[in-house]
């Protein structure tokens, strides 16, 4: 028994000896006291928290990057410190282009060119700094829908943005979530556009029905083009055949003296190269989508741009298959005319031509009526003043009219004669000949002879 105990003590004694190259710390043997191990390595609790924090940051960053909404984060000084992939896709601005920049400077890049002014930059800067300082702003009250302009090649873009503050120990940060709503806006605009076209053509047709003369028709067409077509300016010009230039007749909208400062000569290589002259020469609708760059608009570019005309279109006007003029309209936007607009203008041109033809036909009819009335007046005077008995009758021989000589020669009043038949004025031996005369008229449509 003693030998066994000694063996165990020997083993325990050996195991308690320190190994070469290791350190030991003396442990006091006071009761109830336990000191932490201090081997020189960091505690387990500290790295676990740090790793968890890093994992959380990576997790949330991954969510932000995978989001279909653009995510922007602005620090307490106004610097952009988050700009995810969706933002790059929506705005066309890379993270490397905007990271660390002041938000108001980036905002200027996304603003339409005409609003990129120092005053507008200061306005945005002041608004953002106030929001960062107080955590309050009108920007936080409701979602914002705005036009985005960062890459001209993309055309018009629209965004829906929710902006909100984030409280930090140093003040406030600002975050925003952005959606590209361009497709939705385009759909809405398309519906409004179609409604506008229908309203325009409806009003044009009403104007055609109401108009009694050419100038009134032209004035109404231009008025409708502005009020319902929403064009910036519209005018109608007719060809001066002697000089071969287009003479303005009527206009509506923001003309601002434009028509007094331009000259359009139909067959001139330069002064006839624009939409108006070309549409008259070629007999079709001509569109200029960018007045600022289209070489055809060189003679009129400066005057047009000063009045806010960015695109234009012209449609020819015909009368009895002759090209007599053109309707020209201007829009405030680049690419201001699509296929539907062209169809609308073609229809307006056809309607104007139809109206002019109808007016000319009506004018010719009235002239013919007037000529006929004049002829009837002349005939009546000749008949009434003739010394011969002259009368008219129907196919049965009933008298329809008689002249004054018939009244005088027969002794009957005009009223009595118009109740009688022609045969009553003839001698009995002429009745058979008159009967044959009526039958010939009924069969052949005419007869002549003496009675």
Task: Tell me the number of structural domains.
Answer: 3
The whole-number mean of residue pLDDT values reads 83
- What percent of residues are in strands? 15-25%
If you consult CATH, what is the topology of the largest domain? Beta-Lactamase
Strand order of the largest sheet: 2-1-5-4-3
Order of helices and strands: HHEEHHHHEEEHHEEHEHEEHEEHHH
**CATH superfamily caption of the largest domain:** GAF domain
CATH class of the largest domain: Alpha Beta
How far is it from the N-terminal to the C-terminal residue, by CA?
183 Å
What would you report as the Rg, rounded to the nearest angstrom? 48 Å
The share of residues in helices is 40-55%
Main beta sheet: 5 strands, antiparallel
Distinct helical segment count:
14
Describe the protein in words.
Residues 1-44 have low confidence and may be disordered. With 451 residues, this protein is an alpha+beta fold. α7 packs antiparallel against α8 (214-227). The longest helix is centred in the last third of the chain and has 46 residues, at 339-384. The chain has 14 helices and twelve strands. The strands form three sheets. A five-stranded antiparallel beta sheet has the order 2-1-5-4-3. A five-stranded antiparallel beta sheet has the order 7-6-10-9-8, sandwiched between helices. Strands 11-12 form a two-stranded antiparallel ribbon. Helices cover 44% and strands 18% of the residues. It has three domains: 57-180, Beta-Lactamase (2-Layer Sandwich); 186-362, Beta-Lactamase (2-Layer Sandwich), CATH 3.30.450; 386-444, 2-Layer Sandwich (Beta-Lactamase).
């Amino acid at each position: 028994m003693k030998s066994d105990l000694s063996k165990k003590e020997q083993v325990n004694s050996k195991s308690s000896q320190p190994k070469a190259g290791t350190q030991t710390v003396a442990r006091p043997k006071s009761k109830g006291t336990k000191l932490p191990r201090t081997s020189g390595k960091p505690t387990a609790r500290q790295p676990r928290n740090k790793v968890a924090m890093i994992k959380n940051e990576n997790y949330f960053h991954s969510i932000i990057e995978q989001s279909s909404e653009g995510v922007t984060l602005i620090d307490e000084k106004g610097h952009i410190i988050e700009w995810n992939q969706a933002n790059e896709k929506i705005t066309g601005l890379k993270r490397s282009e905007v990271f660390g920049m002041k938000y108001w400077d980036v905002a200027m890049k996304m603003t339409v060119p005409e609003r990129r002014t120092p005053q507008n930059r200061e306005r945005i800067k002041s608004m953002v700094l106030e929001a960062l300082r107080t955590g309050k702003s009108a920007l936080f009250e409701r979602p914002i829908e705005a036009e985005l302009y960062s890459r001209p090649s993309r055309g018009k873009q629209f965004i829906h943005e929710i902006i909100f503050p984030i409280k930090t120990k140093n003040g406030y940060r600002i975050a925003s979530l952005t959606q590209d709503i361009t497709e939705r806006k385009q759909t809405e605009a398309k519906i409004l556009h179609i409604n506008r076209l229908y309203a325009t053509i409806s009003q044009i047709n009403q104007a055609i029905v109401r108009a009694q003369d050419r100038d009134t028709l032209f004035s109404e067409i231009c008025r409708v083009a502005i009020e319902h077509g929403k064009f910036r300016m519209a005018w109608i010009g007719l060809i001066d055949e002697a000089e071969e230039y287009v003479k303005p007749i009527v206009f509506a909208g923001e003309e601002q003296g434009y028509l007094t400062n331009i000259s359009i000569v139909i067959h001139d290589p330069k002064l006839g190269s624009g939409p108006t002259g070309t549409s008259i020469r070629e007999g079709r609708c001509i569109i200029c989508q960018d007045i600022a760059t289209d070489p055809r608009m060189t003679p009129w570019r400066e005057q047009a741009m000063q009045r806010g005309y960015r695109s234009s279109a012209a449609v020819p006007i015909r009368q009895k298959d002759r090209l007599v003029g053109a309707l020209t309209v201007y829009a405030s936007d680049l690419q201001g005319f699509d296929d539907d607009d062209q169809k609308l203008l073609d229809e307006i041109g056809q309607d104007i031509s139809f109206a002019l033809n109808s007016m000319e036909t009506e004018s010719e009819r009235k002239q013919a009526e007037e000529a006929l009335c004049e002829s009837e007046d002349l005939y009546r005077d000749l008949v009434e003043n003739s010394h011969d008995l002259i009368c008219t009758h129907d196919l049965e021989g009933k008298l329809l009219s008689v002249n004054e000589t018939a009244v005088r020669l027969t002794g009957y009043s005009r009223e009595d004669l118009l109740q009688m038949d022609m045969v009553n004025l003839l001698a009995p031996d002429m009745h058979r000949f008159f009967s044959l005369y009526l039958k010939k008229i009924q069969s052949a449509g005419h007869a002549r002879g003496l009675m």
